Each structure stands twice: as structure tokens, then as C-alpha cells.
Amino acid sequence: MSEPIRFYHRNAIREVSDAGVTRTVLQYLREDAHCTGTKEGCAEGDCGACTVVVGERDAEGGVSFKAVNACIQFLPTLDGRALFTVEDLRQPDGSLHPVQQAMVDCHGSQCGFCTPGFVMSMWALYEKTGHEHAGQQGCANKAACSTPSRDDIANALTGNLCRCTGYRPILDAAEQMFKLEGPKAPVDVKSLSETLAAIERNETFHYEHKGQQYDAPRTVEGLAAIKQARPNTRILAGSTDIGLWVTKQMRELGDIVYVGQVEAMREIRVSDAFIEIGAGVSVERAYAELAKHYPELEEMWLRFASLPIRNAGTIGGNVANGSPIGDSMPGLIALGARVVLRGGAVEREMPLEDLYLAYQKKDMAEHEFVLALKVPTRTGARANLQFRTYKVSKRFDSDISAVCAAFAFIADGDTVREPRIAFGGMAATPKRATHTEAVLADAQWHEATAQAAMIAMGNDYAPLSDMRATSDYRLEAAKNTLYRFWLETRPHNPLAPHAINVRNVAAETA
After folding, report:
1. Which pLDDT score, from 0 to 100, does residue 507 have?
2. Which domain range does residue 423 map to?
3. Secondary structure element (H or E) that encloses residue 104, with its range
4. What is the pLDDT of residues 165-176, one digit of tens each?
5. Is the Cα torsion angle 428, 354, 232, 28 positive or negative in sign?
6. Which of 182, 211, 245 is the last residue of a domain?
7. CB 447 within 8 A of CB 488
8. Looking at the structure, do residues 105 and 230 belong to the same domain, yes or no?
9. Which burial class, exposed, middle or buried, applies to 318 when counting CB atoms under 10 A from its CB (0-12, 13-18, 19+)?
10. Coil, strand or helix: which one is 380?
């Protein structure tokens, strides 16, 4: 039996029973709730004009706030959560929130179309900073909070584009907002947590509209049962790719099963051997954990799409999608990650690179799904692991790679052991460079070795030309990333901080 979608919005619990399964949050806001502050720009999660903040009750009983793109999020995924838009920042007496006042004072808005999205990204940062300062009960003295750095602010705004102001006034406003006195939050966090607890579901949430079904199970067993009974059911995670199938390609998705409420798939477990990341863990959380063990991933973390996309998208979804230009797979493959699959009551695992058979073809039965990823820790011989990832794209922030490279080997003195090289953007799938690895295996890590490996790379890849880069450019860029890897990791290199400090990092995380 179909149940209504229940979520908190505009100071009340809302129940929706007549919306399409793939109706977007943005469509609901503008057409049903008449909250037109949130704008539609690109309808694909790139421009940030539609940015809203979703609140979710966490394991400690608090509420976490995350900026996401309303244009590609489906309304049923709000069930049990809270939705905040720019209208929520208006105070009862009509005064402006410090975020809004700072935008006014710093002249951070011109045409105004992008402004609500910027304001909501800034508010998410404002709340996050306040909660880190004073806990989930709200900050008693927001002015005393340490202001995030300019870089932290820029990173928080990677999902928002503006054609008018040139960003400097907006960054100024994001610094200024922490210095203004004003309302601490549009909601009482403790009260909100209690409200969300009251509408939290313990069993699978089932919703139907015009014959299309949407299920949100709470357990892995529930998810497995649905996929086994109806193998054609589409798995939905962060909607950062599938959302575009609807908004851009106008595709009919059929029945949907949502993994965002399966708690066991949203856990991260660290053992001596592996960092095990549930498939439902957001890209942001996954990279935050991985970067503790492999700080070389920090730049890729920041350059992976934008913060709203990383907040919504999942590491399992990115892996299951298997896009040849996906940025997570090359680094994971170079690190020797393994993927865990579940089908019915059966689990199996394999090296991540073996999952991809051909373009959009994976070694998965129709009823199987990605359950988790297992990334080896930096212990034992891997304490001497040399590892780098590089992204080549036209824009630093929020852009799709022309080439994504990842290199790893265990340094045995000056000798290369167990090299692993993987690329995105160079083939129909994320692919290892086996010929290049063969040249490096058990060789001395000298410049001549690196140059020989660069030549061998021509036997590994024959990339395509497209709007992002030509085939020749891609191959030359790939070779040059290998040479950069040599420059940064060559023996006795005083200019390679990670090559010097990597053992200390390994000792700290062992």
C-alpha cells in the first residue's frame, strides 16, 4: 500500500501523495509549494541556482545540514528529512539573516538569479561552522567562531556559478557573515531532531504514483529481496547521474529502489587491512576518510565535481555507474580497491578493475548491486607506497576530466615493486595500463625508466577525440602525468613532500 512522502518544510510536516516518483524537489518547490526563491538554471546540477539545504537526523540525535542541487533530487528521497530554502532565512520580524545581510553589505549580488543558491551554500557553511564550534544544539556565540579560511569558503561555493560579480564580493560576504550579529539559525536544532525522529520509518517506505513504484528499504536484506523479486528495478543513490536521465533525456525509469535509507550501506569501517566503505556513503564522506590514510587524494577530493554533488552522490553509485570519465575509479584501482557485490543472500568480491567489461557493461547479474568498497590500508610493505592522482580538465573546479590519472607502486629502495597505473578518459572503461606497468615492474626508478614507460603507454590506450580533448592531447597529457609522477617521487627528491612524509602518515594510520 502506498504511503505519503513525509518531510519537514516551512515549519511544518508536509505529506505528498500525488507527485510523480521522479518529480524533482525543484519542481515541487516552484510549482507546488510556490517557493520561487529557488531557481532553475541548468537542470543538471552544475550551476547551483537551485541549491537548497537538506537536514537529516544523525546517529547522535543531532541534525546534519548539506547543500544539494534541488533540480536533480527526486521528491520521494526527502521522506524523513527536512528541506530548507532561501525563504526559511527570513526572520519573523522581517530582518535578514547574517548570510543575507553580508551579501547586501558586500554587494555580492547583481542580477540576483544565482543569489539564492549562493546564500544557501553559505548558510550550510555558516551552520556547519557554528555546530563544530558549539555542538549540535546551536552556537551560543556565533561571532566567536573561527572564520573559515578563504580557501575553505571557495571550496564550499564550488557548486555555485555567477556571471556578474566575479566572485570576489561573494567571497567577501562569506567572510563577513561570521562577523555579524543576528539570528543563529532558522530552526531550533533540538526541536527539529525530535520532529524528524517522529516521522522516521523503521520499515521499507513504499510509494506509488500512476503505476510506478518507489521503495526505500532500511536494510541490506530488504534491498536484496526487492532486487531479486524485481531485477529490473532501478537502483537510485545520490541521483547525480540518474537525475539527468530524467531532466535532460526525458527517460522513463520504471520502478525505483532507493539505497539512501539503508544504514548498513552508509557505514565506514577501518581495520588493519582495509578501509571498508559502504556503497551508500557520500562521496564527500568517503574522500574525507580516504584522505586520512592517503593525503595524496586531497586535491582530487576538492576537484571531484562540486560540494553539493559530493554531498548527494555516493561512492558506490560512482563505481556502479562505471563512467569512463569518472574520477574516483582510477585512484581506487591504483590503490588496489576491491568491490563487494550482493545478489540475494550471496556476496562476492573482486578487484575493482575486473568489474568493468566494456562501455556500460559490468560483471554484475541483473539482481546484484554494489554493497561496499574495500581499500587496502597503508600497512606492512605498503608503508612505502608511492601514490598520486592527477586530474586534467579545462576548469579547476566542478569540471569533467579530459584525463584522470592514478599511479602507485611500493618503493623497495630505488626499485619499483607492484606498480599499478589506471586512467579515466582514455578508454571505454576505467582501465589499467598493463604495458606501462610491465616496463616499471622491478625496474630502477630512474628517469630513463619513466621515459620508457611513457613510450609503452601508447600500447595501452587509443583515446577518442571529443569536446573535451583530442586523442593526441589525451595521450600526450597521460604521458606527461607519468613524468610528473616521476619528478615528484624520484629517489632523494627534496621537493617531494609526500615522498618524504608518507612513512609518517602510514605510521599514524597503522
Report:
1. 37
2. 267-509
3. helix 98-105
4. 889 999 999 999
5. negative
6. 182
7. no
8. no
9. buried
10. helix
